[in-house]
Design brief:
The complex is a heterodimer of chains A (391) and B (242).
Chain A: H1 4-17, H2 20-54, E1 56-61, H3 66-73, E2 77-80, H4 85-91, E3 96-100, H5 104-109, E4 116-120, H6 125-152, H7 178-196, H8 199-205, H9 207-212, H10 215-219, H11 225-259, H12 261-265, H13 271-298, H14 302-322, H15 341-351, H16 357-383, H17 385-388
Parallel strand pairs in A: 1-2, 1-3
Antiparallel strand pairs in A: 3-4
Helix pairs in contact in A: 1-11, 2-6, 2-11, 7-11, 7-13, 7-14, 7-15, 8-11, 8-13, 11-13, 13-14, 13-15, 13-16
Chain B: E1 2-11, E2 14-24, E3 29-33, H1 40-47, E4 55-60, E5 63-64, H2 69-75, E6 76-80, H3 92-102, H4 107-120, H5 136-148, E7 154-158, H6 166-181, E8 185-190, H7 193-199, E9 202-207, E10 210-216, H8 217-223, H9 229-239
Parallel strand pairs in B: 3-8, 3-9, 6-7, 7-8
Antiparallel strand pairs in B: 1-2, 1-4, 4-5, 9-10
Classes of the chains: A mainly alpha (391), B alpha/beta (242).
The structure holds adenosine-5'-triphosphate and magnesium ion (MG).
Magnesium ion is lined by residues 40-41, 158 of chain B.
Keywords (chain A): Membrane, Transmembrane, Transmembrane helix
Transmembrane segments (chain A): 23-41, 175-195, 233-254, 274-299, 305-324, 336-355, 361-382
Pfam family, one (chain A): ABC2_membrane_2
Chain lengths: 391, 242
């Protein structure tokens, strides 16, 4: 036979999943929100940049020169004939205009300095993109010229670059540059999701039960209050974990496909770290699920529950943001005794692949203490007659 | 069947129920009559083990309320007025099944009882539809089925017809009479003498937590020479104010 809390758990999950609002808010929305947002912005930026880079429409002003030949030999640059280039750049029909000084070639052969003026629109991103392309071309052209002059004198080109700088981070093997960003964002997100994920379910299963009038018949069944509490608590935790998972999945998809973020910075997290971060996220969800359920049982109605829960959210967010910039490398062991901050720090350590047994034990013992305290708090609320039967 | 013995409940300084004793036999409907705040709900909540008595107890089918609340719960069914108390997103069947499961019924037993109740209450047509869009009358039937799915010997009704229209009230009243026929012991609380007169064999009138009258309806009528019982009730609860 099914245990009674199991019956409660199954029923609550079924009930929650049939609530279209809950499913949309805690599963679907987090999943699509970031990809949509990033996708729209990313696509917009990317497509115009690509369009400009594919065909850089510019005007060449001045007499024929070797530079003009060089420019037109670049495949993606298109030189457009124009009379009023100032006006056309302003209108955006051409992206920029290159103005070459008189006697350009002659000065060049005399090894004198020659001017090239670029007229562009500082307010147009298209013009900026074109500017980058053209500057690159000019630099290549300059290099060509310098090379020619040096060769004429029989000097090797390498004389111009006495030092070659290569950047190599010390922690390349462990985690890429993306890890820094992730150590800041992931704990923050995990805490916020653990607060917001279980919220709707907690309100529904606590105060909602009172408001619907289902609590009284429920209390006259064979299920004890602890069994009811645990069934509800686990159902709420599951909703929280689903919320966290879909939020993170959404975030991952967003980064992966819109910005190639993960790929570019070479983020590497070991399976072990991922598992530990997962466990930490589950614990976080349990803590907030229990606290929110207790508050929700205390409240008389949906509305009251929502009112009481907003300070919980705010306090959680403040702590989460407080740990946002905290550097794990300089964190003392003492700091692993601060609620929430310790969880944030331990996640940061896991991301960069640091497994400090002392820190892990302290944090997890505290986490268990929080969970037990939160469950006791919820049980206390549920056992008090004046709370359960408040009208 | 039900024997209430000196039941008392104090909420801080308020004594909501004060040393209340009465008995209910098998197949008997006892009306618990009182004005708002008289202590009806509190009494019924104590009998149904939701609230712990400050002192006193009650024996349900010989089981002591204070010592064996789990066993007592198996014996009682409750139908409390106000919100019907159903899960809108579950079907009628799922609503009833949930409480059957939580009352410790086996799956076969639960299904058998639900089939029987669906037939009896004429709910077959909509038993597998979600409760959310039901009319009040349909919901009332589901609530009734839920209250009795575990075949309790004792039924407690706390103002079950409150806020119901005539036809929904009739469903509930028919159900109460049916429970009587099946030999259940029934307590029915109300603040309307009319309703109590129509349904009950005996009446227990409480005022400010105390019993002011306990006897057969006929006796009450005889005692007051066929006077309008509503007026008698008002006088009984009024007397105590002085
Ligand atoms: N949980 C509680 N905490 C404090 N006082 C309570 C509580 N429940 C009931 N009371 C008080 O006990 C008294 C009896 O209340 P009860 O609800 O039993 O009356 P009732 O007869 O059911 O009234 P009604 O007709 O309004 O339903 C009232 O004075 C009420 O304020
Ligand atoms: Mg009442």
């Amino acid at each position: 036979m099914n245990s009674l809390w199991g019956i409660v758990f199954k029923k609550e999950l079924k009930d929650l999943f049939r609530d279209r609002k809950t499913v949309i808010m805690s599963v679907l929305l987090p999943l699509v929100l970031f990809p949509l947002l990033f996708g729209l912005i990313g696509k917009g930026v990317k497509s115009t940049t690509e369009k400009v880079a594919k065909e850089v429409k510019i005007a060449y002003i001045g007499e024929e020169s070797s530079f003009k030949n060089f420019l037109s030999s670049v495949p993606n640059i298109k030189i457009v004939e124009t009379k009023d280039y100032q006006e056309e750049v302003k209108k955006g029909t051409i992206y920029l205009a290159v103005v070459v000084e008189e006697d350009f070639d002659e000065k060049l052969s005399q090894e004198k300095m020659s001017d090239i003026k670029i007229i562009y629109d500082s307010e147009s991103t298209n013009s900026q993109t074109a500017l980058d392309v053209v500057k690159d071309v000019i630099n290549t052209y300059k290099d060509e010229v310098v090379k020619g002059r040096l060769e004429k004198r029989g000097i090797d080109v390498s004389i111009l670059s006495p030092v070659d700088v290569k950047n190599e981070p010390v922690n390349r093997e462990k985690a890429g540059g993306g890890a820094l960003m992730l150590t800041m964002l992931l704990p923050l997100y995990l805490i916020i999701y653990a607060i917001t994920g279980p919220m709707a379910a907690a309100v529904d299963l606590g105060a909602g039960e009172k408001e619907r009038g289902t609590l009284e018949p429920l209390l006259t069944t064979q299920a004890s209050r602890m069994q009811l509490l645990f069934g509800k608590l686990f159902a709420i935790t599951v909703m929280g974990i689903i919320g966290t998972t879909s939020s993170l999945t959404g975030l991952y998809i967003a980064f992966k496909y819109s910005m190639d973020f993960m790929g570019d910075v070479g983020l590497k997290i070991s399976i072990g770290s991922l598992v530990l971060i997962g466990v930490t996220a589950i614990i976080l969800n349990m803590i907030f699920a229990a606290v929110e359920l207790a508050v929700s049982i205390y409240a008389r109605s949906f509305k009251e529950a929502q009112t009481y829960l907003s300070p919980v959210t705010i306090i959680g967010m403040i702590v989460a943001y407080g740990t946002y910039m905290m550097d794990v490398k300089s964190a003392s062991t003492m700091m692993f005794n601060i609620p929430l901050a310790n969880i944030s720090l331990i996640i940061k350590e896991f991301i960069i692949g640091v497994y400090n047994p002392m820190h892990i034990v302290i944090t997890f013992v505290w986490a268990i203490v929080y969970i037990i305290a939160a469950i006791l708090f919820a049980r206390y609320m549920f056992s008090r007659e004046e709370v359960v039967f408040r009208t | 069947m039900i024997e209430v013995i000196g039941l008392t409940k104090k909420f801080k300084e308020v004594t909501a129920v004060d040393n209340v004793s009465f008995k209910v036999d098998k197949g008997e409907i006892v009306g618990l009559l009182g004005e708002n705040g008289a202590g009806k709900t509190t009494t019924l909540r104590m009998i149904s083990t939701m609230l712990k008595p400050t002192s006193g107890t009650a024996k349900i089918c010989g089981l002591d309320l204070v010592n064996e609340p789990d066993k007592v719960r198996k014996k009682i069914g409750i139908l409390f007025g106000g919100e019907v108390g159903l899960y809108d997103r579950l079907t009628a069947r799922e609503n009833i099944k949930y409480f059957a499961d939580l009352s410790g019924l086996s799956s076969e037993e639960a299904n058998r009882n639900i089939e029987f109740l669906a037939e009896m209450l004429d709910m077959k047509e909509y038993i597998d539809r979600r409760v959310g869009k039901f009319s009040r009358g349909m919901k009332q039937k589901v609530a009734i089925a839920r209250s009795i799915v575990h075949n309790p010997d004792v039924m407690l009704f706390d103002e079950p017809t409150i806020g119901l229209d005539v036809s929904s009230s009739a469903i509930v009243q028919d159900f109460i009479l049916d429970c009587k026929k099946k030999g259940r012991a029934i307590i029915f609380s109300s603040h309307s003498m009319r309703e109590v007169e129509r349904l009950c064999d005996r009446v227990v009138i409480i005022h400010k937590g105390r019993i002011v009258y306990d006897g057969k309806i006929e006796d009450l009528r005889r005692e007051y020479n066929g006077e309008d019982l509503e007026k008698v009730f008002l006088r009984l609860v009024g007397d105590k104010d002085e």
